[in-house]
Structure to design on (362 residues):
């Protein structure tokens, strides 16, 4: 039985598309400190269907109207990537706390502008901004992060991989509710999914890059190679971290085989080995940490691994009780996008690219 706290963050969800249907509506309803107070979408048929299903207190066809509702304390921006920055800016200017789906945006410049805008507001008043990198809330990943921070000592290297699967959509079709679409939905111009390099990097690379930064720290520069063959895109990326350690990232979409996501970390006083299941199973990552202190491997069970719910609960705790943020901040979102752009430039130039010199889009 779900136990709700007395004080719940009243959230308005912008966008009734797939990610809201698959994750955010349900996560808001199940979160111990969150309330699905309002939903907003320009497609009247989709808005009506979602309202019938999830029973928010309010529905809105216009974002401005939802932002003008004083009872809406926070907004989830669950729209196409190309709209994120503009809509987040609107929500911030309306005095709302903001949770936005990853990636933060699609260009370095717009992400940096949003980042600066948020910090200008944050210097005057309490405001929370979180990016939806849900892997940070996998109990296995959090176990690894704590071990790295407290026991592993200096880092030597990180290897991480994200390999989407040719079989993955069969699995997710069985796990997720049947999506409801609308011909009236607002979409960006053209077809963003047609550019596979850009779409795969923004959609899947966001997880790979943010997880690497969460576990191993700030990245300074990257070199990268891309192979495009047999209808797959495969990036092999070498990274130099600011701490003096190195990294290797493998992003392959799709892989002929099962979905694979994981990492290995080598350190001064131990090592970490982790495998993350397809997140829609809501099962904790299989993570082992070895410490030279007691010469033992340690594991965590992580019975609650509904990462989409856990990330919203952490967001709400930061808003309601000024708890330190554990999710990806606007700074993390901007840095992740800058890393992905640097990878794209490194593929084009066939040379190392410093993150502080990366500009433009993926």
């Amino acid at each position: 039985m779900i136990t709700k706290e007395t004080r719940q963050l009243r959230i308005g969800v912008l966008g009734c598309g797939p990610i809201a249907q698959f994750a955010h509506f349900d996560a808001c309803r199940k979160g111990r400190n969150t309330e699905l107070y309002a939903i907003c979408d320009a497609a009247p048929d989709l808005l009506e269907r979602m309202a019938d299903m999830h029973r928010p207190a309010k529905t809105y066809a216009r974002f401005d109207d939802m932002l003008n509702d004083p009872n809406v304390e926070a907004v989830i921006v669950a729209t196409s990537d190309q709209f994120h920055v503009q809509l987040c800016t609107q929500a911030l200017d309306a005095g709302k706390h903001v949770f936005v789906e990853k990636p933060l945006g699609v260009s370095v410049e717009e992400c940096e502008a949003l980042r600066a805008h948020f910090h200008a507001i944050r210097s005057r008043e309490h405001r929370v901004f979180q990016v939806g990198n849900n892997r940070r809330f996998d109990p296995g990943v959090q176990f690894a992060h704590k071990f790295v921070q407290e026991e592993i000592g200096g880092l030597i290297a990180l290897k991480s991989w994200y390999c989407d699967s040719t079989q993955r959509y069969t699995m997710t079709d069985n796990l997720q509710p049947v999506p409801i679409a609308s011909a009236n939905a607002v979409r960006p111009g053209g077809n963003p999914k047609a550019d596979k390099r850009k779409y795969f990097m923004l959609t899947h690379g966001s997880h790979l890059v943010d997880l690497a930064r969460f576990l191993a720290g700030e990245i300074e520069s990257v070199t990268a190679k891309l192979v495009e063959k047999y209808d797959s895109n495969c990036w092999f990326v070498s990274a130099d971290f600011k701490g003096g350690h190195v990294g290797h990232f493998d992003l392959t979409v799709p892989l002929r085989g099962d979905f694979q996501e994981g990492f290995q970390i080598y350190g001064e006083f131990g090592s970490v080995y982790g495998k993350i299941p397809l997140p829609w199973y809501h099962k904790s990552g299989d993570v082992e940490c070895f410490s030279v202190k007691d010469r033992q491997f340690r594991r965590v069970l992580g019975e609650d691994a509904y990462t989409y719910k856990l990330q919203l609960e952490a967001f709400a705790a930061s808003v309601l009780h000024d708890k330190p943020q554990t999710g990806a901040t606007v700074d993390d979102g901007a840095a992740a996008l800058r890393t992905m752009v640097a990878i794209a430039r490194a593929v084009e130039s066939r040379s190392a690219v410093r993150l502080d010199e990366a500009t433009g889009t993926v």
Q: What stands out?
A: Residues 238 and 248 are 5 Å apart (CA to CA).
